[in-house]
Amino acid sequence: MNKSSYEILDDNLLSSPSQQTSSSNSSVSSCSNESLKTPEKKINQADEQKITEIPPNEPVPTISEEEWISGGSLGSRNTVLIFKSSALASASEASIQEKPACKLHITYKVLQAESKLLSKLLDCHGITEVAPNSSDFNLLWTGSHPKPGTIRSLAPHQRVNHFPRSYELTRKDRLYKNIERMQHAKGLKNFDFIPQTFVMPIEYRDLCSTHHRVKGPWIVKPVASSRGRGIFIVETPNQVPLEEPVVVAKYISNPLLVAGHKCDLRLYVVVTSFDPLLIYIYEEGLVRFATVKYDASHKQLWNPCMHLCNYSINKYHSDYVKSDDPSAENVGHKWTLSALLRHLKSEGKDTALLMSQIEDMIIKAILACANSVISACKMFIPFTNNCFELYGFDILIDKTLKPWLLEVNLSPSLNCDSPLDVRLKSAMLADLLSLVGIPAVDPMVRINDDHHKSNSSIRSNLTHCRRVHSADGLGNSNSSLKKGAHTVGRGPSPYTAEESKIIRLASAEFKRRGGFVRIFPSADSWMKYSQYLDRTTGILNLEILELTFV
Question: What positions belong to coiled-coil segments (predicted)?
Fold first, then answer.
């Protein structure tokens, strides 16, 4: 008997009752405004089960291979797997065995990460988990950066969910220093989206000097923590600990309030390539509310449930409201991004401008860190599409509707503590796995030497390609690329083998984007962002991608 994905995942993914607090059957004093209303009804589990139930005497529907693969027929070199969150609702033994991934013995392994949602989704698609020490895998999912040797040893059919050196984006100290460097080089007004920050203890004197001119409060964060751990607010520099590395940022004292509550955004951003740079943002995100109403007088700086919006902190508060309805997007202390945008639009706010500013901020933050990652990619990644990365961008909006970047999370949490989490994260994760293109290749089948040599040869062409798009070549690239861009597939190709391959891969990837929106390159990306690129790093042919696919 099949169940809905919410029923299937309820026991395995949702935290135990002892770990959660819910006031879904009573009004909440801290959320008295109608906008933060409590749930009015729960899902009728019996009705939902009927929708997805297959009568026991009827055969399991036949699985069509075309539904689960893209790019060619099964066995073709360019064929990749397609993932659907709906597979969670029909995960019978018979249906799993019929899926192409099961027939090809496709495998995955998870290291230093706990994600029951990921494992369940992969299992439902017929993908088998292998031992941590196995090298016969198609997907490696790790909660931390893999060792350089692991990346160097990747085969063409293998994917890993991190780029080397991406801590330049996800460590709070490195993120700020990279953006600060761009502020000095390109102007503060162009990168004015992160609060002024100091790295302790080396910049303690600078903090004291700034505090003398501009009083606090200041927010203190460990450089490499997540989920609100170790964060607190101080009024003066002498309250900052100097025994361990932390960052101290200017506290945003005028946050956007909804029903009197502070909130922040968690947006899911994927980079599928740094060279060329390809950035996608998921169409839906989460809005997290602080449980206690905001007090601008700063009399309760000690109260994390007023100043921090992390679910991991607020879920323990007695007034925290959690919805049991996956379709309720504006109930309790966790909303969808769409629900917040509808709320702001109803108040006459310009939500289109807000989202444009958020996308601009995401692109610039990644551009600020790209050069270091590109250098590491050249050094360690053996094949074009071996790596991808999912980032969790945490963003605060102030009362003027200006977005501020708080941090970028490595391996954002995929834990599901409510039906809304399951609905959003399962769809996002399925679209992510489809987007990155896991090859439909049996990992036990030996990749022939000619294929390895072909890829190595293509990588060796990078020197020529990067020279074409270096500082010397960019001056004339605009007109020449526009002239040649329309000749793709029409007679002799104007592109090198490397360019042609990357165009093909990016085009196929774009068609599999699902709920992801490609924000870079976009229609005006070259004109708008080329001034921020280090032209000696060889970010490959942005205009070709722009003119071909936008």
Answer: none
